[in-house]
Design brief:
Layout: H1 2-23, E1 29-36, E2 41-52, E3 58-63, E4 69-73, E5 78-82, E6 88-93, E7 105-110, H2 114-117, E8 119-128, E9 131-142, E10 145-158, E11 168-170, E12 176-180, E13 198-202, E14 220-223, E15 228-233, E16 240-244, E17 257-262, E18 287-289, E19 295-300, E20 313-317, E21 322-328, E22 334-340, E23 348-353, E24 359-363, E25 368-371
Antiparallel strand pairs: 1-2, 2-25, 3-4, 4-5, 5-6, 7-8, 8-9, 9-10, 11-12, 12-13, 13-14, 15-16, 16-17, 17-18, 19-20, 20-21, 21-22, 23-24, 24-25
Length: about 375
């Protein structure tokens, strides 16, 4: 049996090597990524190329309803608008932003009926006393300008410059979800009187929805979220998923990064419970990463350029310096997973489906990579 297995392994290795050599003849760089899970072994082939470079500490990449690609720069507080051919069309400066450690201009989201409202939503940090605060702000974007600024909700104020969270997502009811990190003040993630370590849910003009889980006077949607940096909706099941940074080592053993399903009114445990623990009354992760990968932006891929990845979740990893793919079924079960672009582009900050159906990956060093 060992001899037969060895022969099969050799044949398999020759086949993989042959495919790899064939792929290298492509005009673009072709990559084969491989990983294993308890479900099955997977291997994907795709083309990759850098389509934009020289960005200044980019934080978010979003495919706009206008067919353009919008990128935020954390440090410069610029929004850069590129067309589908990756040519720069416009640069917008957001005033009043304080760039401090992990803070600055962060996420961007469009109103579900943007063509009618022209409303654009930003998360960014401002100076408050001796500390900083994330604010969720609505603008009207008309005639190439940001107008009618309105602050909708503010996150925690802290002198710590870390764990702002700040990802934005509109749900199927047209309500806006925003994530706030615990700003290195872990115990406050369980305090219902503050915004530390919470995901909040508000209307498009900043009011509190009547069906919020903690009553009509609370914007809080979930609690116990340490530093949530990714939010997206499964395109079939319509369930909401989140990426979250686990402990840094000083506040609990390192690792324990999470992919969670976000359910109204639930407690995700921080700081009492982390890693794979899931005691009664708390929600444990669907996927957990130790050692840490520092998951940032996430997207369920809905394009057609990579049909083998349709509806899969992609996670941009900072410390892990990779793009993680998870095949999550409609019941919320992870069927298989795969690591892509490992150590090729440094820290990866965000990911998006491009208007042309390809997959876009934003690297913190200022590059935008296209996969197709």
């Amino acid at each position: 049996m060992k001899k037969i297995a060895t022969i099969l392994n050799v044949k398999t290795a020759i086949l993989i090597l042959t495919l790899g050599l064939q792929a290298c003849t492509s005009a673009e760089k072709s990559t084969q990524a491989e990983s294993s899970t308890s479900e099955r072994r997977v291997a994907s082939q795709f083309n990759e190329k850098v389509v934009i470079s020289g960005l200044d500490r980019p934080w978010a990449v979003v495919a706009g309803p206008d067919g353009n690609i919008w990128i935020t720069e954390k440090r410069s507080a610029n929004i850069l608008i590129y067309n589908a051919q990756f040519q720069l069309q416009k640069k917008l400066k957001v005033s009043g932003v304080t760039s401090y450690v992990e803070g600055g201009l962060l996420d961007l989201a469009f109103h579900p009926q943007f063509s009618r409202t022209h409303w654009l939503y930003l998360s960014y940090t401002i100076k408050v006393g001796s500390g900083t605060q994330t604010q969720i702000v609505r603008f009207t974007y008309r005639d190439g300008k940001l107008q009618d600024q309105k602050m909708l909700i503010g996150g925690p104020v802290s002198e710590q410059g870390h764990h702002y969270g700040s990802r934005l997502l509109f749900d199927d009811h047209g309500y806006l979800l925003a994530s706030f990190g615990e700003r290195y003040e872990g115990a406050k993630a369980q305090d219902m009187n503050v915004m530390h370590g919470k995901i909040v849910r508000i209307t498009d003009d900043g009011k509190i929805p009547a069906d919020n889980p903690f009553g009509p006077n609370s914007a809080i949607y979930t609690i116990g979220n340490r530093n949530p940096q990714g939010l997206d909706i499964h395109p079939i099941s319509r369930r909401i998923f989140e990426s979250e940074h686990g402990p840094s080592g000083f506040d609990a053993p390192g690792g324990g990064d999470e992919i969670n399903e976000i359910i109204a009114g639930k407690n995700y445990g921080w700081p009492m419970y982390h890693h794979k623990s899931e005691p009664a009354g708390f929600v444990g992760p669907l996927a957990e990463y130790t050692p840490a990968i520092a998951p940032s932006g996430i997207i369920f891929y809905t394009g057609n350029a990579l049909p083998q990845w349709k509806n899969n979740l992609f996670v941009a990893a900072l410390r892990g310096q990779r793009l993680v793919r998870l095949n999550i079924d409609t019941r919320g079960t992870v069927r298989d997973t795969e690591d892509l672009l490992v150590d090729k582009y440094g820290r990866l900050r965000d990911v998006a489906t491009s208007p042309d159906g390809s997959l876009l990956v934003l690297a913190e060093d200022g590059r935008l990579i296209q996969l197709n």
